[in-house]
């Protein structure tokens, strides 16, 4: 505790002038967000903005960022954690299936992308531990299977969330997301499996996507030694924030493409651990501030920077990563996650995918943030194609606000809506309900949390499909141009 206080003091003391300026600006209603944010929100976002993209922000190498953000903080409090690691299947069919879909969905203009080997499925099961206090340590005497058994005894619903964490594809670890996954387990009454996918730039596209598909298959068809029983697809919800939202939608689009390529009327199959297995669609997707356009090209990237803490593309002072063993790669490439020519591939930037027919229901929760437009375009496209979409947009809130501003009314409402969607798509499908989840949208006002109905099909954006395509092509060109200068753009995701 003393070390934590000392660290916090070292961070905040040099920012005393900024803190004083923010305090006065908010108290005197001089800032444009004074009427929308409480003081805690204003101070948090101002400090984060200064640390991440301010003119005095210190560039940090990717190697150092990964070292700092992938540490296991340990397990304590109202949470059960059971770690899982499963061997790579002996056959190569899953990998070949992914590569086949990438080729089918490409334009042919993409440079040769990486062809990673399959990796063991790693991650952790998370459940809510009701009787513990925030300081209760993890039982040291229990094995991982025993922890899983204890976790399952406290679940009260069939909801299983396959969670893909954020971090711009190159940061963070499931262990750093336990405050999120344990909250989701508590709110839904179910369980969460957080995937430890391989990080870029060391493991570029499609390594993380392959890991996500392998994790989904592991839930459906547990290999020997896994503690869990097979989980029906209609009990699984893909969940993710930011870059994890990208992987969720890319994984769904991958599954849809595999279904499109199958014999009409049949369920596609894939060989997994020695058997031909059906590859069904999940019950739904639950997305929090999803990153859907890796080219960072739509208008909200600049227009809503005033509500966000992330550096916009125009923040050139925050654009360079110091050289380290991880970056730049050899030979160099334009983007951390993929070759520049692949930026608009539908499995890299799901916003580029046009066909979402037969998709399960999708939930969006986000602020008026820099990524807002890409979510709005995709939500509208899904709804127009007959997909059930639940849209929750929070006025003046920043990227992943529920995680960054815990304890606020907006955060509590986000988790409540997220959990309700997960329960609805699972329980309605399990029960054979006739109603199902229906498309609906709400804009939630700051502070008061009053709800305004919005039309998801026509009321979210004025951007046409042609305009979106043009802007994304320009975004790719901008990023590819950076390679000539030996730079890479700062990532807008945490």
From TrEMBL:
Domain Alpha/beta hydrolase fold-3 residue range list: 161-402
Hydrolase among keywords: yes
Keyword Hydrolase in record: yes
Keyword annotations from UniProtKB, A to Z: Hydrolase
InterPro entries: AB_hydrolase_3 (IPR013094), AB_hydrolase_fold (IPR029058), GDXG_lipolytic_enzyme (IPR050300)
Pfam family, one: Abhydrolase_3
Gene Ontology molecular function terms on file: hydrolase activity
Protein's name according to its UniProt entry: Alpha/beta hydrolase fold-3 domain-containing protein
Species whose genome carries this gene: Westerdykella ornata
């Amino acid at each position: 505790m003393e070390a934590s206080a000392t660290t916090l003091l070292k961070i905040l003391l040099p920012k005393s002038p900024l803190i004083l300026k923010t305090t006065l600006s908010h108290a005197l209603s001089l800032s444009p967000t004074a009427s929308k944010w409480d003081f805690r929100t204003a101070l948090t976002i101002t400090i984060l903005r200064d640390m991440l993209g301010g003119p005095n922000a210190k560039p940090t190498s990717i190697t150092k960022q990964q070292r700092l953000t992938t540490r296991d903080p340990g397990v304590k409090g109202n949470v059960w954690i059971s770690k899982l690691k499963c061997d790579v299947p002996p056959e190569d069919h899953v990998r070949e299936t992914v590569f086949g879909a990438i080729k089918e969905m490409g334009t042919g203009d993409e440079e040769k992308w990486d062809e990673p080997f399959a990796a063991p499925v790693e991650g952790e099961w998370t459940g809510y531990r009701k009787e513990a206090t925030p300081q209760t340590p993890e039982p040291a005497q229990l094995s991982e299977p025993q922890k899983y058994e204890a976790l399952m005894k406290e679940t009260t619903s069939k909801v299983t969330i396959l969670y893909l964490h954020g971090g711009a594809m190159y940061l963070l670890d499931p262990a750093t997301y336990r405050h999120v996954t344990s909250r989701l387990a508590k709110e839904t009454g179910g369980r969460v499996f957080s995937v430890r996918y391989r990080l870029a730039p060391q493991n570029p596209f499609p390594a993380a996507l392959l890991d996500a598909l392998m994790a989904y298959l592991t839930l459906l068809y547990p290999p020997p030694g896994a503690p869990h029983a097979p989980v029906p697809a209609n009990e699984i919800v893909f969940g993710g924030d930011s870059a994890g939202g990208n992987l969720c939608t890319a994984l769904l689009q991958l599954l849809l493409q595999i279904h499109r390529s199958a014999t009409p009327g049949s369920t596609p199959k894939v060989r997994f651990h020695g058997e031909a297995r059906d590859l069904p669609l999940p019950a739904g997707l639950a997305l929090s501030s999803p990153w859907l356009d890796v080219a960072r090209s739509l208008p909200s990237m600049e227009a809503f920077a005033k509500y966000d803490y992330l550096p916009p593309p125009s923040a050139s002072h925050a654009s360079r990563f110091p050289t380290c063993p991880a970056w730049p790669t050899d030979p160099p490439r334009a983007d951390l996650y993929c070759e520049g020519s692949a930026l608009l591939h539908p499995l890299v930037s799901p916003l580029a995918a046009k066909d979402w027919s037969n998709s399960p229901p999708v939930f969006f929760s986000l602020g008026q943030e820099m990524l807002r437009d890409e979510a709005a375009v995709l939500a509208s496209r899904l709804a127009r194609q007959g997909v059930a979409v639940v849209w929750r947009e929070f006025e003046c809130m920043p990227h992943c606000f529920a995680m960054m501003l815990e304890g606020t009314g907006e955060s509590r409402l986000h988790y409540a809506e997220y959990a309700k969607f997960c329960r609805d798509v699972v329980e309605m499908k399990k029960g054979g309900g006739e109603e199902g989840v229906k498309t609906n949208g709400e804009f939630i006002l700051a502070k008061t949390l009053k709800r305004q109905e919005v039309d998801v099909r026509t009321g979210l954006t004025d951007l046409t499909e042609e305009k979106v395509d043009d802007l994304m092509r320009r975004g790719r060109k901008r990023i590819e141009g950076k390679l000539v200068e030996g730079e890479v753009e700062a990532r807008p995701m945490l």
